[in-house]
Design goal:
The complex is a heterodimer of chains A (about 300) and B (about 325). Chain A is mainly alpha-helical. Helix content of chain A is about 75%, strand content about 5%. In chain A, α3 (about 45-60) runs antiparallel to α4 (about 65-90) and α3 packs antiparallel against α10 (about 225-240). Chain B has 15 helices and two strands. Chain B has a two-stranded antiparallel sheet with strand order 1-2. The chains are: A mainly alpha (about 300), B mainly alpha (about 325).
Amino acid sequence: MTVAILNIDWQTLADAVSLGGIYALMAVGIGLVFGVLRLVNFAYGQLIMAGAFALALGAEWNWPVWAAILLCFAVVLVLSFVMDRLVFRPLRGQSPAVMLVATFAVSFLLQSIAQLWFGSLGKIATSLAQLNRPWVIGGVDIRKISIVSVLVTLAALLALRALLERTDVGLHMRAASMDFRTARMLGVRANRVIGGAVLVSGLLAGIVAVLLTVQTPLVTPNFALRDTIVVLAGVVLGGLNRPIAATLGGFTIGFASGLLGGALPTNQSQYLDSFLFAAVILVLLVRPNGLFARQDGAAERL
Amino acid sequence: MIRTAQQLAAPVVLVLATALLGLGASSATQIYFLDALISVGIVVGLYIFIGNTGVLSFGHISFVAIGAWTAGVLTVPSSEKPAIMPNLGGFLRDTTVGNVPSLALAALAGGVFALVVGLPLMRLSGLAAGIATFAVLEIVHNMLRYYEKIGPGLNTFSSVPQTTGVWQAAVGALIAIGVAFAYQRSRFGRMLRASREDPAAATAAGISVYRQRLGAFVISGLVAGLAGGLYVHLLPLNTETVYLDLTFVTLAMLVIGGSSSLWGAVVGALAISALDSFLANAENGVTLFGGTLDFPDGTRVIVEGVLMALVLILRPSGLTGGREFSLGWLRR
């Protein structure tokens, strides 16, 4: 471990922070929908995958970068709404386990549709590749994308905070995630709030798709699948019942995974997933409600 | 009494019918029947835990994987071990057992691993349990993939004697069904089902939910391990065969059949297997009612995904409604 710590250079650190940021965005996207629907969306990664394929197609058709990004957002948003309408809405009120299994099904469905459409070899999204070139800051090379993702993450999180705390929709969303039934009785419109959450979560998926394709330009049907699994673990690790806890959980697991992945030699870093998930199990055993959640709440029903 | 007999007989008859059809089938199509029978074993293993506890587990395929690795490593002929698994640890390198002992050891390994994992994990419930069992699957997959002292690592498990025939697969499925049936009718099974319906009331009645869940977890680990052993003797596996796709397919079978009854588990496993083999044929082109169907590769997962989502939306308790089989059901 001591050797591993010595191996950390500025680029590894920057990569870890930017991966943490991206995972934090995904965690917020998953956490927002969970807040209003009590639904853990396993298919969130496939929204990102769809967006990434849109970017790859944009690059293939030689569209300008802004048009490709626009297409990416359009695809992700339309898909989130279709998912909400066709799957989430009919399942409202079912047990979390049933909904989790349903999103599991949606996730596999979208993956195999992508496989039919684009083949398993995937496509390459190159439109933003110049962001992989380094900037020299104080004699240290740092890839532009690391800095851009950190900035974008910060901007998105601040905008989200403003939305949640300064607008009526945000207030309704927060009320709904505290207690949906009471919120409805007090005049919060269920469909509007859920629509809002799905929209914001889709926007975040779009942002993540853009940022991830810069780092991993090869888009395959299982793009972002592993990231989603790790983020889900991170979200539960942080605590699902509070957005800030979920965000911190996402950041923590992304940062840890980026740092260890970059610093450990290959013969150790291939076991990174084992360490990561063992840590997840340990934390869940000690604090089942999550690392950053309030533990003083009413005891969970068995 | 008659009702009890019906409940056990119905799944047994279904399995025997599948086995008989499999015996009559050509060797090219027999593989589908064998696959279906092994699926019954895995899904019944899943059912013993999920059905009786109502707690979701994404980790059971790791028990299947461990069973498969145990049976596989121990039955590859010792002359071929150095070629396939050069880094194998001492004991595993020097030991080779026969077919039946390897299956027993596979079940044992699945059960022991479930015990070790379950001791801490069975304290969790709800989403935490779902994620924690998922983490177990990830860890086992990761270790089997890279730790070459216990198996072939990234390579496919070749040279395992392919001994799983129709009768062995059928006996495996019947053992799974018998164990599940005996367990759910036992005192422990009933205590666990009571805790599924109302954990607080069950605890108040003096039931240790933790202990009962752990028991079910270990028994389901034994059954899943046995199914894994049969699986590795059927066709050459690798770590990807016993990972997310199999987790998805077996969960889909259980949910579509109806996760709270043994009948549902068996019906789901056989129905989806039948559909799956039909679609697999259709991906290669099949003639039906005079026309030729030719679906592109990947159709299977799409159809299963849609079907699973539809069942969850329209009939959340599954095709069988989560009830055991009874003849009165047909008359209505």
